[in-house]
Amino acid sequence: MSGASIDALDLAALLCSRVCHDLISPVGAIVNGLEVLEEAKDEETKTFALDLIKKSSSTASAKLQFCRIAFGAAGSAGAQIDVGDAEKIARGFLEDGKTKIAWNLPRLLLPKNRVKLLLNMLLIAGQAIPRGGELKVDPLGEGESMGFKVSATGTNAKVPPSAPLLAGDAGEGLDAHRIQPFYAHLLAQACGLNAGVALEGDVVVVSASA
């Protein structure tokens, strides 16, 4: 594995910036909706504003729940997370009218860093199909030493430009837009796994295994 590293304070700052970036859009939409509602003088405008607030609140909540596990402490050192809970969080955040998830993992408790790694792998795989498609999640191995394979299938699926960061190649350096796949690399290291992204035919495969 790569010996690339980052100062702990820089890592924390960049991850915080990434989370803030993800939340700015739905929170801003909620604020806009409240402003429209405050000035609304007809029922149609009020209905529009309330719909915007409702949808944006749901989006913000889904993103917060996902980020809490994918980037947060997620319990004490040595804690375990239910894979079924991770599935629910992933579906709430990533599934929509364009993208669906095929989840083929057994329901069990796994060390938190493995679950955090899986959620971060799903983020990278999702970037491979910007027009939507399917994210298929399969186990590699079994039990607490389980690795993962996430296959992204969709129109013009391609390996994301930031993919080398998953293998630890910081390349041009790190910023808030590039920190997430590098953080996934650090999680893979902590789990004793090798992670990477490859194009297999017309499918982009994000994997982590021993």
Tell me roughly what share of residues is in helical segments.
Answer: 40-55%
CATH topology: Heat Shock Protein 90
The secondary-structure element order is HHEHEEHEEHEE
Question: How many DSSP H or I helices?
Answer: 5
What value does the Rg take, in angstroms? Answer: 18 Å
Please tell me the CATH architecture by its name.
Answer: 2-Layer Sandwich
CATH class: Alpha Beta
How far is the first residue's CA from the last residue's CA? 11 Å
What summary fits the major beta sheet?
5 strands, mixed
Average pLDDT rating? 92
Please state how the strands of the largest beta sheet are arranged side by side.
2-4-5-7-6
The number of strands is 7
Strand content: 15-25%
Number of domains: 1
- Low-confidence runs (pLDDT<50, min 5 residues)? none
Principal-axes geometry comes out as: globular
> What is the CATH superfamily classification?
Histidine kinase-like ATPase, C-terminal domain
Structural class: alpha+beta
Oligomer: single chain
Q: Brief description of this entry?
A:
With 210 residues, the protein is an alpha+beta fold. It has one domain: 2-Layer Sandwich (Heat Shock Protein 90), CATH 3.30.565.10.
